[in-house]
Amino acid sequence: SAVISQKPSRDICQRGTSLTIQCQVDSQVTMMFWYRQQPGQSLTLIATANQGSEATYESGFVIDKFPISRPNLTFSTLTVSNMSPEDSSIYLCSVEESLPEVYNEQFFGPGTRLTVL
Amino acid sequence: KQEVTQIPAALSVPEGENLVLNCSFTDSAIYNLQWFRQDPGKGLTSLLLIQSSQREQTSGRLNASLDKSSGRSTLYIAASQPGDSATYLCAVGGNMLTFGGGTRLMVKP
User: What would the pLDDT profile of A10-34 be if each residue is shown by its tens digit?
Assistant: First the structure.
């Protein structure tokens, strides 16, 4: 399975600032995803990041607030812009790994725990 | 819109017990179903993936079943250990996953 790393692992930020989270995969993957996990909640998909095209955002998430880059097949960034305390969450990236006769198993990075004061 | 529900939300059992976690989903048109484990403050570890054409998957002490027609999946954990304490999440879909709320499991020594 793919090995995924995220930077930073955690951060404490001031309201109104922005934070860029990096996701690095040890193999080339077509599709990468960004999820948010608010305190005590399950995971919600923010967007799908495809190399060579703009990210596809889910309902309730917009590019101005969560710009995403996908410069190559092993790397992506998610920026949380103009942060407020409501943005305090764990942000996770995941990748889809397609093996022969196996449909799209997803693997997750360790997450970035963000606290906004 | 797909909705995924996990019952119970929390479970506490003594070490050695066999236990079952439940997952239900509203739209049976799924590609697959994955069970994950999440330790506090950590990312997700994939436990089992069941393709839509399959009925069950096994890995060690874990067995997951899938009944698409009734919109249900179960995760069976045999001979539970304190190290199994974590939150267990099921997710349905294809390349976009819809997650349930999770079951927080505590196995007491």
Answer: 999 999 999 999 999 999 988 899 9
Amino acid in position B37: R
Write out pLDDT tens, residues A32-42.
Answer: 999 999 998 88
Residue of chain B whose alpha carbon sits nearest to that of A6: B43
Average pLDDT over residues A45-67: 92
Tell me the two tokens of residue A6: 């995220």
* Six token digits for residue A3: 């090995």
A85 three-class SS: helix
Low-confidence ranges of chain B (pLDDT < 70): 94-95
- List the single residue in A with minimal CA-CA distance to B89: A42
Question: B40 — contact with chain A (CB < 8 Å)?
Answer: no
CA distances from A107 to A3, A32, B26, B52 (A): 8, 10, 24, 18
Nearest CA in chain A to B52: A103
Closest partner residue to B94 (CB to CB) among A41, A103, A111 is A103
Q: Do A108 and B41 touch (CB under 8 A)?
A: no
Gap between the Cα atoms of A60 and A47, Å rounded: 10
Q: According to the model, what pLDDT value does residue A40 have?
A: 86
CB A96 within 8 A of CB A52: no
B46–chain A Cβ distance below 8 A for any pair = yes
